[in-house]
């Protein structure tokens, strides 16, 4: 009734041209170019960062606080998943127990 039609690639018509032949060329060495003179290094307009001991302690303290907060969030998410899994398991046991005692009567 409905049959798929497979497309047929048309055959090429006309003559195809052969690829162009590339002739090898010889390499002639030229005179070496003199090296460019060394330019002075550009002066940066940005000031250099100078950290005082108090700033280093503050940065280390902030890094520690970030690590502790992220760790607490991840641990609490893991605990929530574990509690949910345990409660689903308990519900499954209770439902199975109810269904099995119903069939014994």
Describe this structure in words.
By secondary structure, the chain is mainly α. Helix content is 50%, strand content 0%. The protein is built from 1 helix and no strands. The chain starts with 52 loop residues before the first helix and ends with a helix. 0% of the residues are buried. The model has no long low-confidence stretch (mean pLDDT 83).
Distance between the termini: 59 Å
N-to-C SSE series? H
Low-pLDDT runs of 5+ residues are: none
Considering DSSP H and I runs of 4 or more, what fraction of the residues is helical? 40-55%
Tell me the number of helical segments per DSSP (H or I, 4 or more residues long).
1
Major sheet: size, sense and barrel closure? none
**Category from helices, strands and their pairing:** mainly alpha
Number of strands: 0
- Gyration radius from CA atoms, angstroms: 40 Å
Report the β-strand fraction as a percent range: under 5%
Shape: flat
Mean pLDDT score: 83
Write a short abstract of this structure.
The protein is an all-alpha fold. It has one helix at residues 53-104.
Topology:
Blueprint lengths: L52 H52 L1
Q: Which key terms come to mind for this protein?
A:
105 residues; single chain; mainly alpha
């Amino acid at each position: 009734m409905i049959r798929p039609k497979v497309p047929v690639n048309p055959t090429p018509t006309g003559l195809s041209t052969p690829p162009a032949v590339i002739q090898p060329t010889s390499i002639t060495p030229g005179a070496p170019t003199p090296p460019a003179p060394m330019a002075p290094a550009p002066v940066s307009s940005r000031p250099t960062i100078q950290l005082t001991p108090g700033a280093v302690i503050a940065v280390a303290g902030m890094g520690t606080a970030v690590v502790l907060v992220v760790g607490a969030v991840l641990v609490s998410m893991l605990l929530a998943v574990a509690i949910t899994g345990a409660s689903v398991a308990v519900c499954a046991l209770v439902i199975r127990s109810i269904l099995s005692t119903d069939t014994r009567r």
